[in-house]
């Protein structure tokens, strides 16, 4: 705003008017001059100035009356008025001047700096007012434009102000009434209205007891959430069902070898793991099998099923341990089953204490001898299934009458913040203290998983060669 | 403190390309890694994969490396891997991948 402030000056005395007008022009204002009160009112109405300076004593319409008229007209009431009077005018006149709505009052003779400073001060006040007015308009426009329903409530819950969205929900006569539904919504944070769900937010207006209540329509979001949860539940059901088919219905325990298996599903909804175990009967013993497909969900469960059934076929066709695992690896790499898998097979024969083992990147089984401390049954780690051209070697260890063996998946030993080796060490140590199979399983699960919800599935397969 | 967000930094070194991984490599970072490895291979230049700043790797990360290794082997593309810190390298040892992937001799740790 580089425009010079414009001033309308009204005084019937030509000399006095000339003096004041000159002072004002020198101070940088643009001045329009009139010689009586009626002309002043007309000029202000015709082309509103930034400020009006009126002499009190004028023939016809005096300054007081001119001021009253300016202040009572809708289009001009915001224009500041400065009254000028002669010295002999008493306090009473000054009071009258201010009561007619004048914004300031100066007595003649007035010095130029005082006049200019007074006018600049009045202009500053007016521009602040204008800012407040425009801010209020902006806020009102914003308030009305919000698509959420917003209302201001007094401490009794009566609507003081409401935006159109609020009136659309609660009726155009909501202002001035207490909306009962809001009381419910304020306590629960949510409100059901005509099949639509609104979330309710309450803000206290600082420094007042009034409340701003905002209702957002979250019907669509809630529906999406429900649909997603339902889809998740469906996938979970399918995965779990599929996973059940991965686990043998019965385990071939007999008087020569006791077998116990256990599976704990992860708590996390999406994570249905590809853990599986199996006990395959061979001509002269059994293969204990445990495995874990790296992925999660239906695909991992399906892949685990494919590996489990293929291994049964290889075993029944008479392939050896290492060759069977090599073939499973080919299955994974050739058919692009995509997910890596780990597995471990222990082949036990009933008439030989020496057992054979092959591991494909799987955590090593724990051997719990009848006499002596528990230890890891094997040292080496074959490579995971999924590496093109990988080969696998068998190793052997003694598994004698009374000895126990524990195969498990990494869900048992993968704890956040703990090195897997440390967890495996703890597992080995815990195996020293409990007899039996089921009791041992319960003990290690309690000690390693405890009450924490496992992030991954846990499968355990235990066997004990019986003393005949 | 450095956040364990997974990052891949590409560096030029001795006429070859170095992909330096840092942060936590899991299901979220695996596709980015796969894309970076495939791009490096299609460029046909010598590649070193540096895991020394990696803080964590899960089976998805291992899976991405295994798939790339399978493709690189089939194409006769040679590359090498610099081992990560102990907790990361342990995942390679336990899965037998320390023997299957081309770790640089000097980086063999367990």
TrEMBL record, chain A:
Keyword S-adenosyl-L-methionine: no
Top-rank taxon: Bacteria
Boundaries of every Response regulatory domain copy: 6-123
Ranges where the PAS domain occurs: 135-171
Keyword Hydrolase: yes
Keywords: Hydrolase, Phosphoprotein
Annotated positions of the 4-aspartylphosphate modification: 55
Ranges in a coiled coil: none
Gene3D superfamilies found in the cross-reference section: 3.40.50.2300, PAS domain (3.30.450.20), PPM-type phosphatase domain (3.60.40.10)
PROSITE patterns named in the record: PAS, RESPONSE_REGULATORY
Xref: PANTHER family: STAGE II SPORULATION PROTEIN E (PTHR43156:SF2), STAGE II SPORULATION PROTEIN E-RELATED (PTHR43156)
Record-given protein name: SpoIIE family protein phosphatase
TrEMBL record, chain B:
Residue span, STAS domain: 6-110
Recorded superkingdom: Bacteria
Pfam families linked: STAS_2
Annotated family: Belongs to the anti-sigma-factor antagonist family.
Protein name: Anti-sigma factor antagonist
């Amino acid at each position: 705003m580089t425009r010079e402030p414009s001033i309308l000056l009204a005084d019937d005395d030509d000399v006095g008017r000339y003096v004041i007008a000159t002072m004002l022009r020198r101070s940088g204002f643009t001045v329009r001059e009139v010689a009586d009160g009626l002309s002043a009112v007309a000029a202000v109405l015709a082309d509103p100035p930034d400020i009006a300076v009126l002499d009190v004593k004028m023939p016809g319409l005096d300054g007081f009356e001119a001021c009253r008229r300016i202040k009572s007209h809708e289009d001009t009431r915001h224009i500041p008025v400065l009254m000028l009077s002669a010295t002999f005018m008493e306090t009473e006149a000054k009071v009258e001047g201010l009561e007619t709505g004048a914004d300031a009052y100066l007595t003649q003779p007035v010095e130029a700096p005082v006049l200019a400073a007074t006018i600049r001060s009045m202009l500053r006040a007016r521009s602040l007012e204008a800012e407040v007015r425009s801010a209020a308009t902006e806020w009102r426009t914003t308030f009305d434009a919000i698509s959420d329903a917003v209302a201001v409530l007094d401490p009794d819950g009566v609507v003081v102000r409401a935006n159109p969205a609020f009136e659309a929900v609660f009726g155009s006569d909501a202002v001035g009434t207490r909306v009962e539904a809001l009381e419910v919504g304020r306590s629960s944070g949510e409100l059901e209205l005509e099949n639509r769900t609104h979330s309710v937010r309450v803000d206290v207006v600082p420094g007042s007891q009034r409340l701003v209540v905002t209702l957002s329509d979250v019907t669509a979001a809630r529906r999406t959430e429900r649909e997603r949860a339902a889809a998740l539940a469906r996938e979970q059901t399918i995965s779990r069902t599929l996973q059940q088919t991965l686990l043998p219905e019965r385990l071939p325990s007999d008087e020569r070898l006791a077998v116990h298996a256990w599976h704990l599903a992860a708590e996390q909804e999406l994570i249905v793991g590809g853990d599986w175990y199996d006990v395959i009967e061979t001509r002269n013993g059994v293969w204990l099998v445990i495995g874990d497909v790296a992925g999660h969900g239906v695909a991992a469960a399906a892949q685990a099923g494919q590996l489990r059934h293929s291994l049964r076929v290889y075993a029944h066709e008479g392939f050896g341990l290492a060759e069977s695992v090599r073939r499973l690896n080919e299955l994974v790499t050739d058919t692009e089953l995509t997910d890596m898998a780990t597995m471990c097979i222990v082949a036990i024969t009933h008439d030989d204490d020496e057992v054979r083992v092959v591991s494909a990147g799987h955590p090593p089984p724990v051997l719990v001898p009848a006499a002596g401390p528990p230890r890891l049954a094997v040292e080496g780690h074959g490579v995971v299934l999924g590496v093109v051209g990988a080969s696998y070697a068998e190793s052997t260890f003694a598994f004698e009458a009374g000895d126990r063996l524990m195969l498990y998946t990494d869900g048992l030993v993968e704890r956040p913040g703990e090195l897997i080796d440390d967890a495996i060490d703890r597992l080995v140590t815990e195996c020293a203290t409990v007899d039996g199979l089921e009791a041992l399983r319960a003990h290690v699960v309690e000690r390693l998983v405890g009450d924490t919800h496992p992030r991954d599935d846990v499968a355990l397969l235990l066997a004990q060669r019986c003393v005949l | 403190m450095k956040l364990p967000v997974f990052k891949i930094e590409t560096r030029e070194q001795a006429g070859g390309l170095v992909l330096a991984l840092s942060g936590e490599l899991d299901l979220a970072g695996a596709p980015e890694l796969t894309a970076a490895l495939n791009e490096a291979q299609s460029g046909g230049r010598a590649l070193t994969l540096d895991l020394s700043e990696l803080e964590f790797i899960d089976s998805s990360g291992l899976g991405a490396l295994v798939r790339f290794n399978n493709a690189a082997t089939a194409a006769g593309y040679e590359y090498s891997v610099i081992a990560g810190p102990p907790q990361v390298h342990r995942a390679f040892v336990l899965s037998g991948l320390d023997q299957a992937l081309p770790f640089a001799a000097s980086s063999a740790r367990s």
